[in-house]
Amino acid sequence: QVQLVESGGGMVQAGASLRLSCAASGRTFSSYAMGWFRQAPGEGREFVADINWDGSSIYYADSVKGRFTISRDNAKNTVYLQMNSLKPEDTAVYYCAAPQRMGGPYEYWGQGTQVTVSS
User: Which three-class secondary structure state does DSSP give residue 88?
Assistant: First the structure.
């Protein structure tokens, strides 16, 4: 019942910034947490950041803390990932995710958007 569409990926140089967006539809967006994950070639899916329904609780992976910022605009049904000081190791397909039920695990996934960072 939930559809997620990521956008904003691209190819940038190390040190650059990029903002990813995830547009959600299909249910009351503001009632659910949202998360960002990434997967590099040959690697498993990695947690990046997530945010609760009103933005009062936010978590980041240690690898991105201090560089990335997750936010949401419930009026626009959109979650963002602002990525600053990008590093080559940030290269991955980035996915947004939502739980199927309130308080549940992430089970809805977008199609992913590619982020490539060159040195």
Answer: helix
